[in-house]
Design brief:
With 156 residues, the chain is an alpha+beta fold. Helices cover 29% and strands 33% of the residues. The chain is built from four helices and eight strands, in the order E-H-E-E-E-H-E-H-E-E-E-H. The protein has an eight-stranded mixed beta sheet, sandwiched between helices. The longest helix is centred in the C-terminal third of the chain and has 16 residues.
Length: 156
């Protein structure tokens, strides 16, 4: 399996201050972001034409409509969002989706799966023993291939 660090995500109730910090201090710029069911922005280091340059994903918490975020990434206690507790998850690029799903099933480690068609990623979200969310990003084609394989096996 190959793993490459992808991005860091930060949950915040103050997106404006978070944006200003990363723009001013690190020189990152706001660029494209898929239409997730919660507020947020992606801050890029370099060209906006490659989502791989989106180093910091800011996850906005809308206290008036938190359901999209809760359903997609899970809930967090607002009081915990200070210091390292504000880091929402660690994302890694990975390959070998089928093998990882089998591995997780054997270990009885639950995961949440999502596909983001706009950036051609299939995501697995795992919780480590300390509650840190690990996001494994696979090429979406691996998910399509796996679904086709399972469909073919079901027909036999």
């Amino acid at each position: 399996m190959t793993l490459i660090l992808n991005h860091m995500s930060i949950r915040t109730t103050d997106m404006d201050a978070t944006q200003r910090f990363y723009e001013t201090v690190l020189g990152l710029t706001v660029g494209p972001r898929p239409p997730f069911p919660f507020p947020g922005l992606w801050l890029y280091n370099g060209s906006h034409d490659n989502w791989l340059n989106a180093m910091v994903h800011v996850i906005g918490i809308d206290p008036n409509d938190p359901e999209g975020l809760k359903q997609y990434l899970g809930d967090r206690d607002l009081a915990s969002l200070r210091g390292s507790g504000a880091v929402d998850h660690i994302a890694l690029f990975a390959t070998g989706l089928e093998g990882m799903l089998q591995h997780l099933e054997q270990l009885q480690v639950p995961c949440r799966q999502r596909t983001v068609p706009e950036i051609k990623l299939h995501q697995l979200f795992l919780d480590d023993p300390s509650g840190v969310v690990i996001e494994l990003n696979y090429p979406a084609q691996e998910k399509l291939d796996l679904d086709q394989k399972l469909k073919s096996q079901a027909l036999v």
